[in-house]
Amino acid sequence: MASLSQRRSQIFRGTRIALGDNFRTDMHISDMEVAITRRGGQVTREVDKDTTILITSDKDYMRKSNNVKAALVKGGKAVPIVEWQWLMDCIDRNHKRPVKLYRLEQNKKQRKEDEEEAQAEAAIYAEKMEREGLFINWELNDIYTDATGFKFKVRLTRPRAENGEMDEDERSLVAAASGRTDDRPRDNEHEIMTLYLAESKEKNPTLYTFAFEYQKRKGGKKYKNRPTFAGGVFADEFARFKDFFERKCGISWDERLARVGVMRHLNFFEYDPPANSGVPLGLIEGDDNIPEAYKEAVMAQREAAEAQAIQNEIAELFGE
Asked: What sequence ranges are listed for the domain BRCT (predicted)?
């Protein structure tokens, strides 16, 4: 008689899973096939009459690949189309997860609703700021620079959903016309979110302000937002900055280097750290959040910042 763990591990029994392509994950198709069959499921690379679920990428869904078309022809409900994270979560939790939270058609609808809501809200703020001058007045403020020399003007990007509407032939034509040899999105194929933390030039008292800009594409209209009417103390405005970063990127501010390139939900924006090793990377809490590739630079910048802080304290103490 099979043990309880053996019975529970057959979470895909009675499930025939079609695997699409273009997954943004380090897990290869062959690994997925093994993981599914070991748990009692069947695997196919094409949607057929016995397929019960299709796992594919947002990219494939947007361009309506043959598998996606076949699944939709069967009615959509009969063959749910989900992102690869459904499989990962099923395996991690040893339980077949409900598909409704992972359906790509739902993700597309939600993303469009979120974008429309964000644009409507941003438009209201933009009008108010033009009327009352509520964004950041750069004649009275500077971009805040921390002790390492890192400037708090942070650019986040996210591939625009409509990019996926091009099929492979169209992508090839675009690549040939532009001389590009890859299909990575250009700047105008990204949504851009720019985060600011400003510091007042007036030092009695020094006030800080968090604000952000959103662009649907490079060169497009900028939607500006400043959550608070007036500036505040550093702790409050920096907390707003970090909270906004985490909501938009799905990781904490201190994880920005440790989680570079880690697959997250497609609705999240991505932060790309400076490529030049000599550029300040900013202070980071927790040595576990400093990957080996950045450790030497971050630690050197941290030590320099601490040394400067000590010098400042001495100068203030002795009135130098």
From this structure: 7-104
| Cα distances (Å, whole numbers) of residue 217 to 90, 108, 281 | 36, 18, 26
Domain 4-102 fold: Rossmann fold (3.40.50)
pLDDT tens track for 180-235: 444 444 445 778 899 999 999 888 888 999 999 888 877 777 788 888 777 789 99
| Cβ–Cβ < 8 Å for 293, 217 | no
User: Is the Cβ–Cβ distance between 100 and 81 less than 8 Å?
Assistant: no
pTM, two decimal places: 0.48
Closest CA to 36 of 4, 53, 11: 11
DSSP 94-157: TS---GGGTBHHHHHHHHHHHHHHHHHHHHHHHHHHHHH--S--TTTEEE-B-TT--BSEEEEE
d(CA 77, CA 52): 10
